[in-house]
Structures are given as structure tokens and as C-alpha cells.
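Postdoc handover notes: sequence design on the structure in folder B. Input C-alpha cells:
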């Protein structure tokens, strides 16, 4: 399969891709049927993030991965205060996005182990990019350069 990207370059995909309609709290696939789930600015917008992450766990096959790119609450107190001040307006204008959400903590609370994570600012907002898998024991994450 070949997809055309915004910059008009071709992107080749090695296997079939299915895009389905559904809600994050009720994914329209069988349990254990996905090798990977990609959340890109989904968890920061989910009204029920733990329910969403529970669905991700349900649909992941053994050895499956959650790959995520999300807003992440800042570790800087002043930035966190600014995030809290803009959240009511930001959330309404941005599909429910909550820049004050500690997305990494939510992933860990849902029983995932984070294998890699990279925290960075994009357009002055803190973000996190990472890979997690269902697990029972948290181990320190490997930080990407």
C-alpha cells in the first residue's frame, strides 16, 4: 500500500492497514487482536483516560505495544500554573485537550510499563513520545536522546 503525505512524498506500508471508526472507550476490535495501538494526542483529550487505557490493554495482543505522542504536564511549576490557567479555554477550543494532565502517570496507573520515553517542548508546550506495554511492575524508563 502507498499513501501520499502532505509533502507529496510516498509512504510505503508493508502490510494491510485498517482504519475504523470508534470511541477511545469502546474500540471496535476483538480483545487481544492488535500488535500495536497508537495514541497521538488522544490520551490528553480523553474524558475518561483510565477507561481509554483499559481498552488499549484489552485489544493489545500478548507482546503488543502502546505507542504514544501526547501532551504532558510540565515539571516546571510556573509552566504548570500557566497550563492550568489556559486549560478551560484550551480544552473547549482543542477537542477536550487537557495540557495539565500527567499522561505518563496515567499510563503507569493503568498498569503499563514504559519502555522508552522522550519528553520535549513543541511550540512551547511539553510533550512526550514513547512506547509502553502491559505489565505489572514499573521499571525506570529508558530516555531517548
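Designed sequence:
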Amino acid at each position: 500500500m502507498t499513501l501520499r503525505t502532505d509533502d507529496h512524498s510516498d509512504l510505503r506500508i508493508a502490510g494491510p492497514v485498517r482504519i475504523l471508526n470508534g470511541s477511545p472507550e469502546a474500540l471496535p476490535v476483538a480483545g487481544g487482536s492488535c500488535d500495536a495501538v497508537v495514541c497521538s494526542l488522544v490520551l490528553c483529550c480523553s474524558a475518561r483516560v483510565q477507561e481509554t487505557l483499559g481498552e488499549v490493554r484489552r485489544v493489545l495482543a500478548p507482546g503488543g505495544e502502546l505507542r504514544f505522542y501526547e501532551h504532558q504536564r510540565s515539571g516546571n511549576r510556573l509552566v504548570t500554573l500557566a497550563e492550568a490557567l489556559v486549560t478551560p479555554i484550551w480544552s473547549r477550543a482543542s477537542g477536550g485537550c487537557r495540557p495539565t494532565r500527567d499522561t505518563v502517570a496515567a499510563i503507569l496507573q493503568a498498569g503499563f510499563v514504559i519502555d522508552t520515553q522522550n519528553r520535549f517542548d513543541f511550540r512551547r508546550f511539553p510533550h512526550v513520545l514513547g512506547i509502553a506495554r502491559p505489565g505489572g511492575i514499573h521499571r525506570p524508563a529508558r530516555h531517548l536522546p
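Context for whoever picks this up: Confidence is low (pLDDT under 50) at residues 1-5. Don't rerun without checking with the PI first.
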